[in-house]
Amino acid sequence: MTWFQAIVLGIVQGLTEFLPVSSSAHIRIVSELWFGDDAGASFTAVIQLGTETAVIIYFAKDIWRLLKVWVLGVFSAAARREPDYKLAWYVIIGSIPISLLGVALKDVIRTDLRNLWITATVLMVFAVFLAIADETAKQRRDTLTLRDSLVMGFAQAMALIPGVSRSGGTLTAGLGIGLTREAATRYSFLLAIPAVFGAGIFSIPDVMDRSGPGVQAGVPQTVAATVVSFVVGYACVAWLLRYVSKHNLMLFVWYRIAVGALLCGLLATGVVPAT
Asked: How many domains does the chain contain in total?
């Protein structure tokens, strides 16, 4: 992987991680179209550490508050009655599905599920799900329950398939169960932190091994892509939170459908290979 490729993929990661359009799909598509090969699931997982660091910094006060009340809850019954204590547990519980499935399906995720026909199809199918959820959303409440955390946790696990989108899946689920867009978005950001950091750290040894297929990234290129994704991602966090408070999600729905349809056309005409 060249420095140019690393910077481009870092920008793509930063721009798409928090939008409901699937960053892993975009990394897969851009690396195939522009560079003629797949950058790989491990590289994608590692550079997501940059965007999640942006989340930690942006939500530093919220995260510190959750951590503090969670620790205090071990010793204090009063702390256990705090809403943030429950929310901290909901983040932990909601992270379990993607953690278990990510380990169990590791080989499938890095091979079969990166077929671009799957990516194109999933982009369009889940765009329809997002549209239905957004158009029918009641947006009755902004507090979560244990059931909500499990529903959104399993929705996040679907993002192991490139094209689903971590934020898209959790937003779809959150709106479907009656949460406001803002509440679903904020919980989606918090829920992603354990999963993304776990996957990124878990994938570092695989990135170090440059004997596999595809575009192989060296350590300097991986670090550069991660830093770029952090800078771009930080700006996108603030923008998305402002956007969802005032607009629906149909812009992203139509974008997903357009990208999926275009990719189907490129695959059908042999411009790009599926694998």
From this structure: 1
